[in-house]
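Dear colleagues,

As part of the handover before I leave the project, I'm documenting each prediction I ran so the next person doesn't have to rerun anything. This entry is a single chain, and its sequence is reproduced below.
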Amino acid sequence: MSVSEHIRSKLSQVSHRPGVYLMKDRFGTVIYVGKARDLRRRVSQYFQPSRRRGWDLKFRALVEAIHDFDVHMVKSDAESVLLEGRLIKEFRPRYNISFRDDKRFLLVKVNLNDPIPRFTLTRLETDDGARYFGPFASGGSARRTLALIRHRFNLRGCRPLTPTEADYRHCLYAHLKVCTAPCIGNVTLEQYRMQVCAAVDFLAGQCGEMAAELEARMKEAAAALDFEQAARFRDLLADLQRTTQRTAKFERVPYTLPVTLNPEAELKALATALGLPRPPDRIEGFDISNISGTFKVASLVSFWRGRPDRANYRRYRIKSVAGQDDCACVAETIQRRYRRLLTDLAGRGGPSVPPGNGEEARAPEAGGGESRGSSARDGRCECPVSRSPTPARRGRGRQQVGTGTPGVAGSHSDRRRQKGS
């Protein structure tokens, strides 16, 4: 694996700060998103040949696909976790496993407009007039800090929006003296609201007094050789610091992906290499897959003027080939593809192209060596196609006829029928 000069120059400019890095392939597509405490040290590990022996197949494929990278620096590790999750959900890179679902980071919610406000955990922020704190990179720290706040400020943890005496009878928070029980009038609603406001200020960052108290109790327990109690205070202090640490909110990240390939220039180079009179409009590729000779399928990918035309991708089930014979499968797929295309054009009464406006379409090629290529040409000769329609507009059933290598177009119903062929 040779490292390009472009990557070397970018590595020398990367800082040693925490942040997030994005690996991109030669098409400019983000294929992996990662985070690091030291961006320069972490990113450079991808391009060190001495580490190749320890790579598995997946990581080796990732590194070989890297063509460029970008970095985003943040202030803390917590911010890097939040930004990493946001970017993975934004781009859905193929080599990332975590954070690909729709699960979000935890938030603490309190609605001061409720009759008896309460603190709850949620993952979705809505415009309902409530106040939200977070998101928090560590869900465990958020839960433990919320439990600490309830004990510190004597707040309720029951679920009813407006608890009554019936709820008080089986409320553990009140019986354990954790909650001041405003539902039965132990304190007035104004007094309880003051407790809630103090907890809100605490979550907003005014927690220096409690942090100092926890640190002092930790040192006292350690001096008394009660190390288990000291460890509990230490963990509470760490959770408190992680939860109340200020982090940036990352909404939709404005990120544009540059296209490193110029389709027009690449098509001109392809036409020169193949001896074509002009760049092709339509390019189609076929491939065969099977499991020990069974479940044989063929796939078709289509490009229109150098760009993927995913509406015309197809998958075929091989019907007439027995055993494992990729060449025969390619020939069958080519025949079915273009025979169906000719039939659809004839039945639809498609317009013809005047002589001289286009060149004879070349025989389609299939990957897998000379044997597959000859099979493709043999199958192609049985159903010649000399003109290629442009991609149809979806849902209108219209088509225009252009020139180039073979292609297909049609309405949504036509494409659905063709998928089953």
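The first strand starts at residue 19 and ends at 24. The chain has three domains: 5-91, 106-244, 263-419.

All the best with the project,
I.
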